[in-house]
Amino acid sequence: MELLIIRHGQSEADLLGVHEGRADFPLTELGKEQAKRMAEYVAIHYPPDIILSSPLKRAQSTAFILQKTVGCELVEDPNLMEFNNGVLAGLSREVAAAKYPLPTNGRPAHIPIQDGESELDFRFRAERVFHKIIYNYREFDRVAVVSHGGLISNLLKAFLRQSPTNEFAFATGDTGFHLIEIKNERRIVKFLNNQEHLKAAEWGKNE
């Protein structure tokens, strides 16, 4: 079983300099183009049998574009949403820093942000949804998961059986994707954060 884990395209929040998280901003026009190019590339090289997606607009729209290109089933799962950043969602970074400053030495992993979730809550949510995916969709050869940077990082930690709190993180660019595999009880990383579809040469060929 392979998991193709995909981050959404550029969202309007990326241009506004705000905390996104659960704030539900749509894709920009560039984000839609990124998603289209990702979908065309994935359809040729790594076509999924089913797509699972966060219901937040930026991921949902990216998943719809992929579904339209590939033609397989799409299932939305709220557990694939980004970190619940509570009161920070949609706030500019300046306003957030003034109104809700971080505690000295940072917020402990077990303490949730106001109206949101803690880092541990987030990590365990990713752990649950990872196990749900590999159990409920085990009959599929390749499952695409369209989600968000923070959730994707935690899914990869779950795949690698990393401890709930550690200093490691996995970056994912706009519409970047990772391919991992579970085969005969082995967990195989095939590649991380592939953005071949966004290379200048590739864009030029399709203009």
From TrEMBL:
Substrate binds at residue 58. GO terms for cellular component: cytoplasm. GO terms for molecular function: phosphatase activity. InterPro entries: His_Pase_superF_clade-1 (IPR013078), His_PPase_superfam (IPR029033), PGM_Phosphatase (IPR050275). The active site is at 8 (tele-phosphohistidine intermediate), 82 (proton donor/acceptor). PANTHER family: BROAD-SPECIFICITY PHOSPHATASE YOR283W-RELATED, HISTIDINE PHOSPHATASE FAMILY PROTEIN-RELATED. This is Histidine phosphatase family protein. It comes from Neobacillus mesonae.
